[in-house]
Write a structure and sequence with these properties.
There is one protein chain. The chain is an alpha/beta fold. It has two domains: 29-190, Nitrogenase molybdenum iron protein domain (Rossmann fold), CATH 3.40.50; 194-312, Nitrogenase molybdenum iron protein domain (Rossmann fold). Helices cover 46% and strands 10% of the residues. The protein has helices spanning 2-22, 28-32, 42-52, 75-83, 97-104, 154-169, 174-199, 215-221, 239-252, 266-275, 295-312, and strands at residues 36-39, 57-60, 86-89, 116-118, 206-209, 224-228, 256-259, 278-281. A four-stranded parallel beta sheet has the order 2-1-3-4, with helices on both faces. A four-stranded parallel beta sheet has the order 6-5-7-8, with helices on both faces. It is globular and about 60 Å long. This is Zinc ABC transporter substrate-binding protein. InterPro entries: AdhesinB, Bact_metal-bind_prot9, ZnuA-like.
């Protein structure tokens, strides 16, 4: 009789699912994925999607290819934040516009019942300083350099914290999330070994960057950033600065200029023509070049492009 009862329950469940499907209503699994997690950048979206295993819906405020440090809020973003079960941010002034958005939706405090996850608190930061965002031209990084996701090893801690936070939002999916995080971590570790091997012949190579996005990347792959083209974040270089920088590049034998797609290209080209260094367009975020389709692909692209440019400049 127990077997017959169990069989009847299974039949009833199948029939109910069939009715919901015919009516165009979501099944339980589909409804579960409608739990919303909002992140500030495409990089965080890629990592969160990877470690959540489809347990939640993930939306990024900054769209692929956009400059997060020049982000402009829209009314639709208020609704996203209001509906989010979890909000994940970079911190360190990089996504400081989120604070205004949180105030508009009633979250005046930085953390409210664990709903806001700032990933910068578990990272070994570079360029730590006491400096506030300046109200003049350009923009300043906050208490430290915020581009820590560009060291792929930092994604180990980032993904673990995201998985833990998502697991609190949908505790019934914790096993799925744990398995997804392990898969991501395993793939990350394997590919990091390959990236290090590809760039190892160029350890100590002198390079210049347009924007101060790359200290974590340079530390991981043992590259030497000798100078920046911008005199201050968001401020274009003067002709006098470019002339002086060209001299420093020749003296240090800088072999590559790291350039992001949304930065003005003329200063980098000017320096390349006068020093022989190669301009390398790298993806500072997922989607900023077409090939950087997710977080791991971002490093596939950047490592390959930089290795080719450094080899050509030898």
């Amino acid at each position: 009789m127990a077997c017959l009862a169990g069989w009847a329950q299974r039949c009833a469940a199948i029939l109910a699912a069939l009715v919901l499907t015919l009516a165009g209503l979501p099944l339980v699994e589909e409804a579960r994925a409608e739990v919303l997690v909002v992140v500030t950048t495409p990089d965080l979206k890629s990592i969160t999607e990877a470690v959540s295993g489809g347990a939640v819906r993930v939306e990024s405020l900054v769209q692929p290819g956009a400059d997060a440090e020049a982000f402009v809020l829209r009314p639709s973003h208020v609704a996203l934040i209001r509906d989010a079960a979890l909000v994940v941010r970079i911190g360190l002034g990089y996504d400081e516009w989120l604070d205004k958005l949180l105030r508009q939706t009633g979250d005046a405090r930085p953390v409210r019942e664990g709903r806001i996850l700032d990933l910068s608190t578990d990272i070994a930061l570079l360029e730590v300083q006491s400096r506030s965002i300046e109200a003049r031209s350009g923009h300043a990084h906050g208490a430290a350099n915020p581009h820590y996701w560009l060291d792929p090893e930092n994604a180990e801690a980032m993904s673990a914290r995201i998985a833990e936070a998502v697991g609190r939002v949908v505790p019934e999916m914790k096993n799925t999330i744990t398995a997804a995080q392990v898969r991501f971590s395993t793939d990350l570790t394997r590919r990091l070994k390959g990236w290090v091997a590809t760039l190892s012949p160029f350890q100590g190579a002198a390079i210049v960057a347009y924007h101060n996005s790359w200290p974590y990347f340079a530390r991981r792959f043992r590259l030497n950033i000798v100078d920046l083209i911008e005199p201050k974040e968001g401020v274009a270089p003067s002709p006098a600065r470019l002339a002086s920088l060209a001299g420093r590049m020749r003296a240090s034998r800088a072999r590559a200029i790291l350039h992001e797609p949304f930065e003005p290209l003329e200063p980098s080209r000017y320096l390349a023509e006068r020093t022989g260094a190669r301009v390398v367009v790298l993806a500072s975020s997922v989607g900023s070049v077409p090939e950087a389709t997710d977080y791991l692909a971002l490093f596939d692209v950047n490592v390959d492009r930089l290795a080719k440019a450094l080899a050509e400049a030898q």
